Amino acid sequence: MTRQVLVLLMLLSPLSWAEPMQNLESLSDLKWKNRLILIEADQQIQHYQDELDRLDADIVDRDIAWFIVNDKDVISNFNGKLSDSAADEIRQTLQSHSSAVLLIGKDGGIKATETQLILDELFGEIDRIPMRQQELQSR
């Protein structure tokens, strides 16, 4: 009897219904699903992460996946495993645009390049995008 109850609890557990963790092989895997904020940080990784975590509700509301990178680490709110090739792609994308912060739209296009992370400005940029305006109207 106890075993049956345990099995029933496992089946009803939210964890058993959660989406399986994905592997991110390329930024294109997120196309049409998420807006991306890519941030290059040398010593300020924790500062940036704290700022992003503080505004998590706004980030979730705008379907943002963010990635903070330096020479050796990548920190992200992406719920899955980031491949080495995806981490390299993030670094190369930032370097090719000579920017510390990039905003990439759901369509994969570069929407903003910035020298520093100012989330209110990025949120404003996102909120002016026609796709975002459609999302807000359909609520």
UniProtKB/TrEMBL annotation:
InterPro entries xref list:
DUF4174
Alphabetized, the UniProt keywords read: Signal
Any Pfam family from its record, for instance, is DUF4174
Q: DUF4174 domain location, by residue?
A: 27-135
First and last residue of the signal peptide: 1-18
Would you tell me the protein name for this molecule?
DUF4174 domain-containing protein
Q: Which organism is it from?
A: Methylophaga marina
